[in-house]
Write a structure and sequence with these properties.
Layout (H helix, E strand, L loop, with lengths): L7 H15 L2 H23 L1 H6 L3 H22 L6 H23 L9 H4 L6 E5 L3 E6 L6 E6 L10 H9 L3 E5 L12 H8 L5 E7 L1 H13 L7 E7 L14 E7 L7 H7 L8 E5 L23 H19 L5
Parallel strand pairs: 3-4, 3-5, 5-6, 6-7, 7-8
Antiparallel strand pairs: 1-2, 2-4
Helix pairs in contact: 2-4, 2-5, 7-11
């Protein structure tokens, strides 16, 4: 073996130090962004683990893709020892900005995780059978089921399991309840789920569409387009702290019940009052005194919400009772 010259090792060290010195702020920015691309998905997974593994798979896939991409970029940047040409530096800046936006979006999309008593309500018993797949939750009455079913759209970024406790009384009363899992927790990305559900439940000959917050807005759109279906029409629209995005006062033939909270800081009483003009004149409005936006599910406090003046248990019971009474009033085919 040929020995290296005595000054070879110091020369290599000097070259490496010089290369590191040539790395400017842009390179260090890439390092910081790469670290954020590892840290943010880890934070989202740890703080919302239940929602990540029980939600629609897309968010979990995006978390893994973000981690993998950040790791590759971070390693390549550490190994790079050369300055980039002008046009390549511009491209690098664009990629950095895009990466920051992407990581911020991943953080913003972190879902609200279901908490008790919703988790306990997911357990089957002698009255209700609960089934869960990567794309939906279904609550089926253990005995004779009505020919009327309930299809429920979750609020933005709220995992589907969070509504199990408030909706389970509907299943106990004999109604099949379907809760789709929305891609990224956005109801607008689940617009086609109702049409798919109808084909899977041929014994259900009429539907009540329901939803919380943004989910109610989408349910309104689905009800407006499905109320004339001759085979399995939408006969009811049940809104939880929600309202339609446009005027459906003359086009919607389904019966409407709006249930809201007097202390809601997101779908405020003023918002609900303003929505009356966009709903049919026969719509019923029920206000749960002291309830807030997050009381329509079980997922913890929500930023921007109001301060409750009633217990969550009391509010949940009133919401469930109103829901069962409403669906029962539309059910003329209970077996």
């Amino acid at each position: 073996m040929t020995d290296q010259p005595a000054d070879a090792v110091p020369a290599q060290a000097d070259a490496l130090a010089s290369a590191r010195a040539r790395r400017g702020p842009l390179t260090w920015t890439v390092h910081v962004v790469a670290v954020a691309g590892l840290a943010v998905p880890a934070w989202a997974a740890v703080t919302s683990w239940g929602a990540v593994i029980h939600g629609y798979p897309l968010y979990a896939i995006l978390l893994l893709a973000t981690v993998a991409g950040s790791a590759v970029v971070g390693i390549r940047t550490l190994r790079s020892q050369h300055r980039r040409a002008g046009w390549r530096r511009v491209g690098r800046v664009v990629l950095i900005v895009g990466s920051i936006v992407w990581i911020a979006l991943i953080a913003w999309l972190r879902p609200f995780t279901a908490v008790e008593p919703a988790l306990a309500a997911m357990i089957s018993d002698a009255k209700v059978t609960v089934s869960e797949t990567p794309t939906q939750i279904v609550m089926t009455p253990a005995g004779d089921a009505s020919t009327t079913g309930v299809f429920f759209q979750s609020g933005a970024k709220v995992e589907a399991r969070a509504y199990a406790a408030v909706l389970r009384p509907l299943a106990e009363a004999g109604y099949t309840v379907v809760i789709p899992k929305q891609p990224l927790g956005i109801a607008f990305l689940a617009m086609g789920t109702f049409d798919s559900a109808k084909s899977h439940y041929p014994t259900v000959t009429s539907w009540v569409l329901a939803g919380h917050s943004l989910g109610g807005t989408v349910a309104s759109m689905q009800a407006d387009s499905g109320d004339t279906d001759p085979a399995s029409p939408v006969v009811g629209l049940l809104l939880y702290a929600s309202y339609p995005a446009s005027d459906i006062s003359t086009s919607l033939t389904a019966t409407v019940l709006s249930v809201s909270g007097s202390n809601d800081g997101l779908a405020t009483p003023a918002d609900i009052a303003a929505s009356k003009a966009n709903l049919p004149t026969g719509a019923t409005f029920t206000v749960i005194d002291g309830a807030v936006h997050a009381f329509f599910g079980d997922y913890g406090p929500q930023p921007g919400d109001g301060t409750p003046a009633i217990s969550h248990e009391d509010a949940r019971q009133q919401i469930s009772d109103a829901s069962v009474g409403f669906v029962r009033s539309l059910d003329g085919h209970h077996t």
